[in-house]
Amino acid sequence: MRTTMSWMIGIDTGGTFTDVIALDRATGRLRTIKTPSMPHDPSEAVLNGIAAFLEMEPDVESGDIGFLAHGTTVATNAVIERKGVRTGLLITKGTNAVYVARMSRQPSATDMLNPEFRKPALLIPARQTREIGERLTHDGSVLSPLDPGEVVRAVKELTEAHGVTSIAVCYLFSFMDPAHERATRDLIRKAFPDVRVSLSSDILPIVREYRRLSTTVLDAYVGPTLDRYLRRLGDGLTARGVTTPQVFIMQSNGGLMSIDVASANPVQTLLSGPAAGVISGRYLSELLGLPNIVTFDVGGTSTDIATIVNGEITETTEGTVAGHDSSVPMNEIGTIGAGGGTIARIGADGRLHVGPDSAGAVPGPVCYRRGGEEPTVTDADLVLGFLDPARFLEGRLALDLDGATRAIADRLAGPLKLTVAEAAFGIVKIVNSNMESELRLNLMARGLNPRDFALVAIGGAGPVHASMVAASMGIGTVVVPPYPGLGSAMGLLLTDIRHTYLQSNPGLLDGYDCDAMNALFDGLEERARDEARREGTDADALAITRILEIRYAGQGYELPVPCGGDRLEDADKPAIRAAFHRLHERTYGHCAQETAVEIVNFRVDSLAVLPKLRLPDCPPADGGSPDRAIARRRPVCFDGTNKRIDTPVYWRPNLRAGDRFDGPAIVEQADTTTVVIPGQRAEIDRHGNLILTFAA
């Protein structure tokens, strides 16, 4: 008898491939699939992934899918490619320089050394900005009332003269009283019902005008694009008989949210794509007892790098996407344009350059036979022997070795007077160097030593390049999970529904009225429970954490101090103050116990726990030889010379827990290929992870 609604599915849509992992909660059975991405319509890639799963499991029906979570780069790409909608901005009169100045921040040291660096253009140019003559004071009282006629005239001009279809509203001190912003929204909806409105008092009701404004602009800019995508996805799921109400999207903070809630909060999805890979890394950190991990997620178009320190994901509220600032909570992820589809060219200086341009899914690398003409990293990997032209993705995509060789020979090796092997290895060495640079910056900017970390290789190209990058950086351990090519898809089945609710209301801790504090927390908790009900989860079962974001009076930054779930009383304040002093000393190396402590933000974190994927134990080797898994041998070039080493190729599904073998070796599986370089030892642990270490 079939158990209905028992299947959980995670789908990650990347630039080149869409990855699907499905778990039958009733039996623990796993299914994995890779299908081509559809850049013209990412929702089609998700639907194709579901169709491929149902084709693989003919006894499963659409109605048996009880849970669907997916990660998407729709919002990210809208910002990177500047393909969001034409957006207008309404601000308080006299504050038009806030967005333009961007806090007068200098470019990073790396950007300042780049002669081609240009600060990204504003998402909303000055001609699409209008000042409104309203004004609140710092405590939320009205200094100048809102003029409804002025709002309507401004929006009429923006829509008719500039074709604006979305409006960001950010008035001064609206976090203290949102009445003016809400009245503005109501006026726009009545007079211009087709125009979308984003309010800063809804999206990020906190102090720091520029960050609040920039985040609201991002929300308005990507909102209609994400909304169209989610509507197409929802309609497609309904048409295909997927009826579960549990359809979620990954947020930038590594938690899930329903697609209905996501449609109203698009800015929360800006790092939806790479965030799930970090969740996989945290799971492996806990599973393997490795507290310090770097996730190395290499896909077709980019490499995403994140750190897990002492088992905790590094988060930030000062993130950027393509140079545009966002203050919603997000996993701290460094991204560079270096992936399997990254294009190699000879630059104006006559030297070989790799990236950041990518061939993407269409036309893709030359070897994909889809019309690509410029050599890519994947073409170089193929020419060097890392990839098998006949067995890539289990033979579902036959690679054109001759075409890749000709492209490298004609466009790079010939003009540079190199052999094809030298040019191909040059591509790999340069792209690895680019990855290493981002990894070093990510660690060393925070005073972390790469040698204290293990590297977790995920993404379709991560296991191909991870060992070479680790060797160069002195990282001693590389972990390749059982389904590395589907690392982000796996992370979608390893997380929970998470939300953060913030409200600025500054005041000194000692003098703050406890009834007012409790009222602010109660309001945030009610928002959390309302949203839980919208997402179909049990509002009464939510795990709620109350947090005060505190600073010393006069400071420009604050730290989060949990303050329990009970109602606050004056007797609780000394413990809160002491906890802040300890946290400040632990974070910055000092504290100032005689200085007054100021509350800046009230914060509530909510968590709805979901069922999760767990890796099954791998069958033991029982003393058998790993040679059972050798499927073939092939010549592989590991050093850029014309010398190739006859290298064993292992079929990973035939490896068992306890198997050990030395590099050089190639390990193939359905979703990726792992390169074990000379000097490494490979071992399969009891969970099926491939652990690569360097000889002492």
UniProtKB/TrEMBL annotation:
Domain of life: Bacteria
Segments forming domain Hydantoinase A/oxoprolinase: 212-500
GO cellular component: cytosol
InterPro entries documented for this protein: ACX-like_C, ATPase_NBD, Hydant_A_N, Hydantoinase_A, Oxoprolinase-like
Domain Acetophenone carboxylase-like C-terminal: 514-687
Any one GO molecular-function label of the UniProt entry: 5-oxoprolinase (ATP-hydrolyzing) activity
Protein name (database record): Methylhydantoinase
Species of origin: Azospirillum palustre
Phylogenetic placement of the source organism: Bacteria, Pseudomonadati, Pseudomonadota, Alphaproteobacteria, Rhodospirillales
